[in-house]
């Protein structure tokens, strides 16, 4: 059995200690925000924070996580209010969304250590693959999230989960057809 803290909760996994953390999170803990992309650590879709460091969960075994603190995208912000999540939406830096959880986790780790990253620092830290090619918007979004983190800017939040769609739509000006 492997004991660790996942999203601020103690968890005991009764699985083979050599199981990749990715599968323990997805299959045993039902935390499906952590995505399986390649299984070889190349894409970053499975990125989580382990003791505050962004790591690819497909390359880390349960045994290596014994006693450590793991944060998944579900645990980063339950109401989607984390500056990275808000900035990605505000900058329209999400297309299909498959890579988004891993990018969010990598960007959150970067901003914890550097709230004012340059474009080059972002490109070095965010090595996740995005098949939709949102990279220019991604850089802008992470820089914007940094400004929010430094309290130099505010972002009007997207509706929290559970908001009725017609109530959320009522707050958006009507689109003109012409």
Automatic annotation (TrEMBL):
Keywords: 2Fe-2S, Iron, Iron-sulfur, Metal-binding, Oxidoreductase. Pfam families: Fer2 (PF00111), Fer2_2 (PF01799). InterPro entries: 2Fe-2S-bd, 2Fe-2S-bd_dom_sf, 2Fe-2S_ferredoxin-like_sf, 2Fe-2S_ferredoxin-type, 2Fe2S_fd_BS, Beta-grasp_dom_sf, Diverse_Oxidoreductases. It comes from the Bacteria. Residues 1-76 form the 2Fe-2S ferredoxin-type domain. This is (2Fe-2S)-binding protein.
């Amino acid at each position: 059995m492997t004991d660790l803290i996942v999203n601020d909760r103690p968890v005991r996994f009764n699985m083979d200690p050599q199981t990749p953390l990715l599968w323990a999170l997805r299959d045993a803990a039902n935390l499906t925000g952590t995505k399986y992309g390649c299984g070889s650590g190349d894409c970053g879709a499975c990125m989580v924070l382990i003791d505050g460091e962004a790591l690819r969960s497909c390359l880390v075994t349960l045994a290596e996580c014994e006693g450590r603190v793991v944060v998944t995208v579900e645990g980063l912000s339950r109401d989607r209010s984390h500056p990275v999540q808000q900035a990605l939406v505000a900058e329209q830096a999400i297309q299909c969304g498959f890579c988004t959880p891993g990018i969010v986790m990598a960007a959150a780790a970067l901003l914890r250590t550097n709230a004012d990253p340059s474009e080059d620092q972002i490109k070095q830290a965010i090595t996740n693959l995005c098949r939709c090619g949102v990279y220019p918007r991604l850089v802008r979004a992470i820089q914007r999230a940094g400004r929010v983190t430094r309290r130099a800017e505010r972002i009007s939040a997207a509706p929290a989960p559970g908001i009725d769609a017609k109530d959320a739509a009522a707050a958006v000006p009507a689109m003109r057809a012409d």
